[in-house]
Design goal:
The chain is α/β, with parallel strands linked by helices. It has 13 helices and 5 strands. 51% of the residues lie in helices and 12% in strands.
Length: 243
């Protein structure tokens, strides 16, 4: 039997999570709490195997995750986030793109991104819109010592060997140069920077992009980056590096 504590400010959401877990014979909810202070108290009292934590708690108290990891390393933390895995990728992609300034609202939501939570010591993240089975599966995944997240997030965080990772689909013929262009697009580079990096003209870069987007049947640079990262066509780094 595995013990779980559920933490969310919204009582209806707490009840929903608890109701899902009550249907699992090997999962036992010992407490449900609604504030960061109650989280620390409940985890100290029950020492659960898993803490299901609403991302809003992390925003309310940015010391919560570090404190939990330092004092209760035996509890795996699963974060409930407001966005999909692809939304998270889009935010990180835009953050690293030349000339793009995120709005205050977008920057604020980026702090709750799965990647940020996982780097902050959580073991997994699940969109609040996920199906009940997905929540249960994520809990079992972190109980097994694995990262529970979308495939591209797992790979980005060094979990390429995870059994939950994506596989590379059969692809159209893509040249080595086209792969280079795809990788730099996925890193957030502009055509000008790609041209400088590869020693090409901007028009040649545009031609490569046009051809590869036609081959992969995507309509924009962002869709191309999503396609490449989700299918591991390139090293999974979404922030722009130096030219």
């Amino acid at each position: 039997m595995y013990d779980v504590v559920v933490a969310a400010a919204n009582a209806l959401m707490r009840r929903g999570v608890v109701s899902v877990l009550e249907g699992e014979r090997d999962l036992r909810v010992l407490a449900e709490v609604g504030s960061p202070a109650e989280v620390m108290s409940a985890v100290a009292r029950h020492e659960p195997d898993v803490l299901v934590l609403d991302a809003g708690m992390r925003k309310e108290d940015d010391t919560l995750l570090p404190a939990l990891r330092q004092e209760f390393s035996g509890t795996a933390i699963l974060i409930l986030v407001d966005h999909s895995y692809d939304d998270c990728l889009v935010r990180h992609f835009l953050e690293g793109t030349d000339g793009v300034r995120l709005s205050d609202e977008a920057a604020d939501r980026l702090q709750d991104c799965c990647v940020s939570a996982l780097r902050g010591s959580a073991r997994g993240c699940v969109p609040k819109s996920a199906a009940p089975d997905d929540l249960v599966r994520a809990i079992r995944t972190v109980l097994g010592g694995e990262i529970a997240a979308g495939p591209w997030i797992e790979a980005l965080l060094g979990q390429a060997g995870s059994p939950h990772g994506a596989h590379v689909e059969a692809l159209p013929q893509i040249s080595g140069r086209e792969f280079e262009v795809i990788e730099l697009v996925a890193r957030g580079h502009s055509n000008k920077r790609i041209a400088k990096r590869l020693g090409l003209s901007e028009q040649t870069v545009k031609n490569h992009l046009t051809h590869v987007m036609q081959k992969l049947q995507v309509d924009s640079r962002l869709e191309l980056a999503l396609y490449a990262l989700r299918r591991r066509l390139v090293p999974l780094a979404v922030k722009s590096d130096e030219a």
